[in-house]
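Predict the holo structure. Ligand: FE2/S2 (inorganic) cluster.
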Amino acid sequence: MTDDPGAVDAAAKRGSLSLRLGLGWAKSHSLHTGQTPVMKYNRQLMQAILWDKIHVADIVGVQVISLDEAPGGYGAFDAGAPKNSSSIHITCSSAQPDRRTAFCKSRHRPDRRLMALQGETYMFPKNTWYVACTPDEIADGPLGRQICGEKIAFFRGPEGKVAAVEDFCPHRGAALSLGKVVDGKLVCGYHGLAMGCNGKVVSMPGQRVGGFPGVRSFPVEERYGFIWVWPGDPALADASKIHHLEWAVNPEWAYGGGLYHINCEYRLMIDNLMDLTHETYVHGSSIGQKEIDEAPVATRIEGEEVITERFMENIMAPPFWRLALRGNDLPDDVPVDRWQICRFTAPSHVLIEVGVALAGKGGYHADPRFKVSSIVVDFITPETETSHWYFWGMARNFKPHDAALTASIREGQGKIFGEDMEVLERQQKNLESYPERKLLMLNIDAGGVQSRRILAKMVAKEQAPNAA
Ligand code: FES
Ligand SMILES: [Fe+2]
């Protein structure tokens, strides 16, 4: 590589260079050996380069030489140096716990363990199970949904077994999810190509389809009232790794929930759920109360889980919990002990044990006659690098057969989680506008920070050059 942006030697080899930095992309239209990469303008990347935060030549492992030395440089390339120049993808931040830190490590070479050369890179693990949808969403026909960057069509194949294939018709590229399911096959709504559950073309009117290319199919499982998908390498998919959810199979429990699409990266939602001090401010009229701020929070790691918890004693219950106390035939105007135990299980679950017990009856451990407790269920499924699907709900083990109570809790919870949306989407926009700004990390942020560390390790392992 020379510092001459214009010259292209006839003997130069042509390739492309893509750089990914946090949420930003820059891609050269064409990069010739012996030529400085000319990149499409990307504000974040350009700022990083101009402010000397990253060193492109270091990252791609080349030496910058002066124009006078260029002929010698070309000679080195002609001797075989550019062998791997066809396509290089680099990330210097996506595998880090916090993408902002990429900009804070001024004058340090990017950690090579965090780079993935010659492969796709992304900020979420893909070799894992995510909640993709709920059965009602595919009851009347196929569903198109993007998960971890993969556009997927979900449908029920033969005998109602759920199937997931790339949402791309091999004929002309129409979205298969716009079609319909006929006899367990997904029929493209454009010209009638019929796709099987395995991604192979079954038939098309007036055509022989023997030589037609297929599309990817994705491992998919229906369990616990959800449809789970494995967006990564199918060979690694193991259904036994789906997190066991006792409340989903035990008749002593009831569940109600919903789905929100949120335009922010999935880790901001994890941060939100692993630090409930925001309840006081974002949810002041339902579950917030000043005692949350005043109670100390403790965070610990157990294996692959991060647990952050807070206990409050002898306080008055906020409106949402008063409703729950009444729902379980308990008084709502006497002091209670309250708890919040947030458990993050990588990569996408935050299950939060919450509840109140009449004060002095043992709090979290109180006899069920004196408390209302439940599990706030959060499945956070990345859609793209700047958006996610948020499956929210509440599982409770009091009055499980009371459908009206399930509905009123669901309505209350839906409103509460709706309050988080605007906060998170505006936060995402701010972070995109000012990626260089350094953020604080306070004790209340420990749950989110530890969760990000686990995610970063998973991503780095998956994207390591020789990862299985
Ligand atoms: S695009 Fe699907 S059948 Fe033509
Ligand atoms: Fe919230």
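Residues 403-433 form the longest helix (31 residues). Residues 15 and 85 are 5 Å apart (CA to CA).
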